[in-house]
Amino acid sequence: MSPILISCACFAGLSACQILGLEPGTSPLNSAATGSVAPGKMGGHRTPVLAPHRAFIMERLGQTPHLTLHALKDELAARGVKVSHNAVWLFLHREGLRFKKNSVRP
Predict the structure, then answer these.
(1) Cβ 40 vs Cβ 30: under 8 Å
(2) 88: exposed, middle or buried (C-beta count within 10 Å: 0-12, 13-18, 19+)?
(3) Cα separations (Å) of 52 from 41, 44, 56, 94, 98?
(4) pLDDT digits (tens, 9 = 90+) for 4-53
(5) Strands annotated E in 1-106
(6) For labelling alongside 15, which of 8, 35, 37, 72 has CA 20 to 30 A away?
(7) What are the boundaries of each domain within the chain?
């Protein structure tokens, strides 16, 4: 099929699959990269980066409850774990830990 016909068909509102007579989700682009015509994965859940370091983080927070997020991030960096401030916050949030100013806590 010539590029002019394909562009006219696209202008008419047809998808590439309709133009080429393929089922939706079976784009040749998928099969070239993976060898499969199955649609690619979208979204999903990632394993938290800090999950393998949970024991160390909990131990440090047990020793020093007033440890700041940035200090914890720096301690992880010293162990070779490069993470962002937000990654540390998200991990602690998932664990149910909060850092609030509190006159009761030392």
Answers:
(1) yes
(2) buried
(3) 25, 20, 9, 14, 20
(4) 655 555 556 566 666 677 666 555 555 566 666 666 677 777 788 899 99
(5) none
(6) 35
(7) 3-34, 51-94
When mean pLDDT is compared across 1-5, 62-66, 79-83, the lowest value belongs to 1-5
Cβ-contact 58, 50 below 8 angstroms = no
Return d(Cα 69, Cα 89) in angstroms, integer. 7
- Residue 48's nearest CA partner among 80, 78, 93 is 93
| CA 20 from centre of chain | 34
Predicted confidence at residue 72, as pLDDT, reads: 93
